[in-house]
Write a structure and sequence with these properties.
The chain has three helices and no strands. By secondary structure, it is mostly helical.
Length: about 100
């Protein structure tokens, strides 16, 4: 689990994606509240937010490949729900797996 989490190559299953989303929420919410209370550290929180967003995009693209969708599908609004609950394909993906 979590082999090369910042890479766009390969694919990941539902469990790893759900854990990734949970980690993102456990990072973003405290970071948001701390940034509103401690204005002097907002630049640091902004940098951390960029890292967390990059992690989210990488994990979502790999999960989209696992269920047979294009990586660009993560832009649509309902995709996160389908990425969380849809069963993945058993065949290998064409992009880097």
């Amino acid at each position: 689990m979590f082999k090369r989490p910042f890479s766009f190559k390969g694919k990941i299953g539902r469990n790893e994606y759900c854990i990734s989303i949970g980690m993102i929420f456990m990072t973003i919410f405290p970071m948001f509240f701390l940034a509103t209370k401690h204005i002097e550290y907002q630049a640091y929180f902004g940098g951390l937010y960029i890292v967390v967003f990059y992690f989210y995009v990488a994990q979502s693209i790999k999960r989209a490949r696992d269920i047979g969708r294009d990586g660009w599908d993560i832009i649509s609004s309902g995709t996160i729900i389908s990425l969380l609950f849809k069963k993945g394909n058993d065949e290998t993906a064409g992009n880097g797996s």
